[in-house]
TrEMBL record:
Top-level enzyme category: isomerase
EC number: 5.3.-.-
Keyword field contains Aminoacyl-tRNA synthetase: no
UniProt name for this protein: Putative intramolecular oxidoreductase
Pfam families assigned: MIF (PF01187)
GO molecular function: phenylpyruvate tautomerase activity
Taxonomic lineage of the native organism: Eukaryota, Viridiplantae, Streptophyta, Embryophyta, Tracheophyta
Matches recorded under Gene3D superfamilies: Macrophage Migration Inhibitory Factor (3.30.429.10)
Coiled coil: none
InterPro entries: Macrophage_inhib_fac, Tautomerase/MIF_sf
Source taxon at top rank: Eukaryota
Family in the record: Belongs to the MIF family.
Keywords, in A-Z order: Isomerase
GO cellular component, one term: extracellular space
Length: 113
């Protein structure tokens, strides 16, 4: 079950976040080959984040944890696609201000993807 946890410094009050959940779920499912029914997405807003010495510009940090199926190509596609989703969403987080950590828990720690 892939799980994406996103934290952002953007205030989510009054923001329709359902499209972000929907788009991220579909993208993760398509890229990892896991069914949408097994994808979990968590989103937390108003998290203090400093990125490039700026705390005022929109930024996000994400962690995607999956059990298998994470290759270098999958990792690159996840980073690019989720970055586009956040940039094009109402959150307006530039792709250059988004960092994603991708972890395959079926891979021994320390091995390179």
């Amino acid at each position: 079950m892939p799980c994406l946890y996103l934290s952002t410094n953007v205030n989510l009050d009054g923001v329709d976040i359902n499209p972000i959940f929907s788009e991220a779920t579909k993208a993760i499912s398509a890229i990892t080959g896991k069914p949408e029914s097994h994808v979990m997405v968590l989103l937390k807003g108003s998290v203090p984040i400093s990125f490039g010495a700026s705390t005022s510009e929109p930024a996000a940090y994400g962690e995607l944890v999956a059990l298998g199926g994470i290759t270098k190509a999958v990792k690159r596609e996840l980073i690019a696609t989720l970055g586009i989703i956040l940039q094009n969403s109402k959150l307006g987080i530039p792709r250059t201000r988004f960092f994603l950590k991708v972890v395959d828990v079926s891979t021994p720690m320390g091995s390179k993807l």
